[in-house]
Design goal:
Elements (H helix, E strand, L loop, with lengths): L2 H31 L5 H4 L7 H7 L11 H12 L7 H10 L9 H11 L9 H7 L6 H14 L1 H10 L1 H8 L9 H15 L7
Helix pairs in contact: 1-10, 1-11, 5-6
Length: 203
C-alpha cells in the first residue's frame, strides 16, 4: 500500500469519527450566534461548548484562559461586522485586544471563523500548511492553495461519500433542520481531514 493511499484511508476514519462532533460544534455556535444559547451556557465545560471546542481543536493555548469569555464576546461582535470572514484581520484584532499573548494567532481566528461560516472558512494550522507547502502564516495565502487542493480531491471525496452514504445519512439526520447546505460542510470537513493526515497537493 502506498503512503498516499494509507493517508487517505486514515483520513476517512478521522472524518467519520469526528464528523458528528464537528456538526454539533457548528450547530452550537450558530445557536449562540442567533441568541438561542446564552453566553453562560456556551462557556460551560461540557460537550459542544465553546470552551470544549478550543480544547478539541487545539487552540486553547493560543488564548489566555481567563480571557475565554472576553474572546467569545469579541467574536460575537466581530461576526456581526463587515469583515466577518477576514481571518487575518480577525487574528490581528484579537491580538490588539490583548487576548492572544500579544501574538497574531491565525490558527485560532480561522477555527473560530470556521464555526461561524463552515461553508467558506477552513481551519488553518501547521498540519494543513505542511500538506500544502505553505510557509507563511497568512490565511489569504492559504485560500488559493486550499481551493486547488479541493478541486484535485473532489472526485475522491464524491466516491468516498457514496461508499459511506448510510453512515452519513445517520449522522446528518440530527442536523438537517438546524444547518443549511450540509453537503458543503461535509465536503469541507473531509478535505480538511485529508490535509490533517498529510495528503499532499499535486505539483
Amino acid at each position: 500500500m502506498t503512503t498516499d493511499r494509507n493517508k487517505r484511508i486514515k483520513s476517512i476514519g478521522n472524518f467519520l469519527s469526528t464528523y458528528n462532533s464537528d456538526l454539533n460544534y457548528i450547530r452550537q455556535f450558530q445557536n449562540f450566534k442567533s441568541d438561542r444559547l446564552t453566553t453562560a451556557d456556551y462557556l460551560k465545560k461540557s460537550t459542544g461548548t465553546f470552551y470544549q471546542f478550543l480544547i478539541e481543536f487545539r487552540v486553547m493555548r493560543n488564548v489566555k484562559k481567563e480571557k475565554v469569555g472576553e474572546l467569545l464576546t469579541e467574536t460575537k461582535t466581530w461576526i456581526a461586522g463587515s469583515a466577518a470572514i477576514n481571518v487575518d484581520k480577525f487574528a490581528r484584532h484579537l491580538c490588539d485586544r490583548g487576548l492572544t499573548h500579544e501574538k497574531i494567532m491565525t490558527s485560532l481566528s480561522s477555527k473560530i471563523s470556521f464555526l461561524n461560516d463552515p461553508w467558506t472558512i477552513f481551519p488553518f494550522d501547521n498540519l494543513a500548511k505542511k500538506s500544502l507547502g505553505q510557509r507563511t502564516n497568512i490565511y489569504s495565502d492559504y485560500i488559493p492553495r486550499m481551493e486547488k487542493f479541493k478541486k484535485e480531491n473532489l472526485d475522491f471525496a464524491i466516491e468516498t461519500f457514496e461508499s459511506m452514504k448510510t453512515y452519513l445519512n445517520d449522522i446528518e439526520s440530527s442536523y438537517k433542520n438546524d444547518l443549511r447546505d450540509l453537503e458543503t460542510i461535509r465536503l469541507n470537513r473531509f478535505i480538511d481531514k485529508l490535509l490533517w493526515t498529510g495528503v499532499k497537493s499535486e505539483d
